[in-house]
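# nightly structure sweep
# worker-07 picked up a monomer target from the shared queue
# config: single-sequence mode, recycle default, output format = structure tokens
# input follows
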Amino acid sequence: MDISFKEQTIEIRRVSKIIGEDVLPLDLLLVTPQVEDIWSSRETVDFLGTTLSVVSRDGLVKMKTLADRPQDRADIHRIENEDG
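# output follows
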């Protein structure tokens, strides 16, 4: 599924991976000029023995700020007020 925000400033492709009986949604960020710094600050994590590149916490806040929907603002508040 294609997802775009704010006139394609952020472009995401959502796919689902089936692991046993569980469905894991994966959002694949397409690197546009507006999010190139988010891509540069990505982090790597181990997931079931595979290394994945994921958006950093700061990058996620920036993406949500760019999207600026009510749920994004609520997510930013939660992210900024949680431990870790």
